[in-house]
């Protein structure tokens, strides 16, 4: 019996060391006994007399239950657009999955990919496909998930990626779902339409936890949508773990000169990006910063391209031509993969997001730029307001090329201020690296399992 007790305790401690059984969930008596047994696994000479047969039974039962339950916990299902779709949320979900698996390789995330008629060659983690505009698909998906071994479901929410009026088909899925639901809201409108408000409020009500990326979004969930604070978690948009380094070599690798002053944006191109105001600003500072180059990286957004073709891009190119920018404007008309995105980001001196939509509550590329310690110039959409506060970047009025030009000159001429701002941004970005974001998501997954 003594050897069996010792073996049981060692199994418990070994499981705890791999976080299979969190000690905090044990009763105080069992925690005290476990603490007294923290000896190396090869030293089995003594077992404290406090260990009773009843406690041994409780230990063994607890170990068995937890190992089985945690094995189920590791099966995670995310509902989202997904790569190779050209969509910011698709990329975010892919990066989140990679970060979660990198943090804990025992977790097995699978994906429900939202499609819109055209199917894609999806990677193996995509186990289900949801036709965006088929209401029956949402109900059938809920039935399939309910009969599966997935422990919980995570929805990445943006009104436009789901079918129905303001994406309300997702409510059919959520209402029928019997698994714990966690929802990440990528948009929280300050002045939603009545139906937009209903969709978000109902989805948040049906969710056990609701994730947003900034404090202002949390405040909106409380004040506009009446979501209880206990159901809201703030987790930053993840960023790669990059070094704060000189960008000379990065410029040369991309074919620029070391002394070029590179201002850039990396995005899916659409009219609400406000890029014409950067082009105008480049012309205004061309005498003050003769080696400035504006680098516009990104394909036209697929939905924009379907609706209006390349008319906005053609408008931008004509504007640059009319202003005689010549070698001061470079476009990279492609959807760049993550490694190329990072290469361009490393090379830039200034990252700019001159968006005209001020209701945007997340921006992956602005997050990446802050994480890389870049000087950032942005219009005051709510994500930028929060991320660039406390001297981490410049905020300028929207549609104001004069203000952009002023900040470009200020950045170019004041090297001391530039370095301090880069350091402040980089320090803040350490809170946003993907490993930390993954750890916080995993804790929410564990909480969802515990409360079920």
TrEMBL record:
| Span of domain Glycosyltransferase subfamily 4-like N-terminal | 171-239
**Any one GO molecular function term:** glycosyltransferase activity
**Which Gene3D superfamilies does this entry report, sorted A to Z?**
Glycogen Phosphorylase B
The family database entries (PANTHER family) matched by this protein are listed as: BLL5144 PROTEIN, GLYCOSYLTRANSFERASE
Name the UniProt record assigns to this protein: Glycosyl transferase family 1
The domain of life for this entry's organism is: Bacteria
In what residue span(s) does the Glycosyl transferase family domain sit?
248-427
Alphabetized, the UniProt keywords read: Transferase
């Amino acid at each position: 019996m003594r050897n069996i007790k010792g073996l049981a305790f060692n199994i418990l401690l070994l499981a705890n060391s791999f976080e299979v059984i969190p000690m905090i969930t044990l009763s105080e008596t069992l925690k005290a006994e476990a603490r007294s047994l923290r000896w190396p696994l090869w030293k089995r000479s003594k077992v404290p007399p406090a260990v009773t047969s009843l406690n041994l039974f409780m230990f063994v039962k607890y170990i068995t239950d937890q190992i089985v339950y945690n094995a189920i916990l590791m099966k995670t299902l995310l509902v989202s657009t997904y790569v190779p779709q050209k969509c910011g949320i698709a990329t975010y979900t892919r990066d989140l999955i990679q970060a979660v698996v990198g943090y804990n390789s025992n977790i097995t995330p699978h994906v429900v990919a939202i499609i819109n008629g055209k199917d894609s060659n999806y990677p193996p983690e995509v186990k289900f496909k949801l036709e965006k505009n088929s209401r029956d698909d949402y109900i059938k998906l809920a039935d399939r998930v309910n009969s599966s071994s997935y422990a919980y479901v995570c929805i990445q929410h943006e009104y436009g990626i789901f079918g129905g009026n303001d994406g309300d088909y997702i409510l059919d899925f959520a209402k029928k779902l019997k698994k714990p639901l966690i929802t990440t809201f990528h948009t929280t409108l300050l002045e939603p339409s009545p139906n937009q408000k209903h969709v978000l409020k109902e989805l948040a009500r049906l969710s056990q936890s609701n994730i947003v990326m900034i404090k202002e979004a949390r405040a909106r969930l409380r004040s506009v949508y009446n979501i209880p604070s206990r159901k809201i978690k703030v987790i930053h948009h993840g960023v790669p773990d990059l070094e704060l380094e000189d960008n000379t070599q990065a410029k040369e690798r991309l074919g620029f000169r070391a002394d070029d002053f590179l201002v850039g944006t990396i995005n899916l191109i659409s009219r609400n990006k406000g890029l014409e105001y950067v082009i105008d600003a480049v012309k205004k500072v061309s005498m003050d910063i003769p080696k400035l180059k504006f680098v516009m990286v990104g394909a036209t957004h697929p939905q924009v391209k379907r609706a209006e073709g390349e008319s906005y891009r053609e408008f931008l190119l004509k504007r640059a031509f009319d202003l005689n920018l010549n070698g001061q404007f470079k476009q990279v008309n492609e959807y760049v993969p993550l490694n190329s995105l990072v290469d361009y980001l490393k090379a830039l001196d200034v990252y700019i997001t001159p968006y005209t939509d001020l209701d945007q509550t997340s921006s992956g590329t602005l997050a990446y730029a802050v994480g890389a310690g870049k000087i950032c110039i942005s219009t005051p959409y709510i994500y930028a307001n929060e991320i660039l506060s406390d001297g981490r970047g410049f905020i300028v009025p929207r549609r104001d090329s004069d203000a952009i030009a002023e900040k470009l000159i200020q950045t170019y001429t004041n090297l001391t201020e530039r370095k301090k701002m880069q350091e402040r941004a980089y320090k803040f970005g350490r809170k946003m690296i993907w490993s930390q974001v993954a750890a916080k998501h995993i804790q929410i997954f564990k909480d969802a399992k515990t409360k079920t």
